[in-house]
Amino acid sequence: MSDLRRDEQAAAPAVDNKNKPRSDASSDAQVERRRFPRQERASENRQPASPTLTPLSFSTRELKPDEQFSAWQAYMAPLMEVRRPDISQQVEFAADHTAWNLGGMLVVQQNTPPHSYMRSLAKVRSDLIDHWHVSILRSGHTWTEVDGRVSEGEPATVELRSLGHPFRGRSTQAQSLSLYLPRELLFDNPGSTEIRNNIVLSGTYTKMLVDYLDSIEANLAGFAERDFPHVVQTTRDMILTCVSSSAEASSVPEPHSTWALMERMRRFVQRNLKSSDLTTERLCRELGISRTRLYQVFGPDGGVHHYIQRRRLLAAHAALSDTTNRQPVADIAFDIGFSSAAHFSRAFSKEFGYSPREARNLTVPPYLGHSETPASTVEGTPSFDKWLRALGHSH
Fold it and tell me: Global pTM?
């Protein structure tokens, strides 16, 4: 019996040891459960990130029918003059325009009834907005004439046109996706491809470009700010690839034609806008032309010095319109190439009709009150006009 009791006593600790691991495991599990409670609560309370891009939308649909067309004319005035077809008997003009600003590129979705349009030589000279306009029709047809040459836009085609040159055209009822790219974005082209104005791109690469732009349009609301440079750079590279591979690219302007010379001149002036040595002599030397030829090219723009000064004033206006740029006016003047703040102020007021300080407090243009714009202060209220003028001139 004593041996049996000793055996039972010896077995008792074995039972305790067998149960102990279960007790420790339960305790450890409780510790584990207490290790991450804050993270779980944080994930439950996490708010979705607000969208980075807020579109600038304008529509005439909520206006009275007899006010719609004049509202559309006023909205498009920074770019072109718009007219109704001569045979149109309709009073209403239901049109929509939604713009997205990716910093180095504007993306515009547009829906319009039939109309005609014209960007006159006077407007080209007056506003100096010379961006590239890339357009894809979703529906409808357009016919655009530049220097007697007409390009036809139809669904799935890609048109490339300069806003630095006059054009005119007409459109049926149409939906389109447009890109506005600063001229300098296409300057630094390793292949030195000359871009012909008013062309229709075609071919395999153009189909790829259309597919890519379709994906951009579908994801506009989801882009983060860090995505903007990559989207713009990829778009630029694909456009240049399409230009170099398109059949129309083989027909390029002569090196010393007025169009080619103006392109080279614009590139050089824009790249050296802040230089104090941007003189007539330097332009002649860099462009390889005579002073007489240079004056012939600049004559319609009021002369060489007038052209350079207006480019500088436009860049200054863009800086003053940028709500994130709080540089003193004098610093902006010196930074953009003016040697005197007083001279800058006088030239700016003469050019735009208001002072540099007033440029930071411009009110919303007519009919822009009808547009759905992002919440902003009065002085920072965005507009399509401001976006166009600031494009390519960010500081």
Answer: 0.66
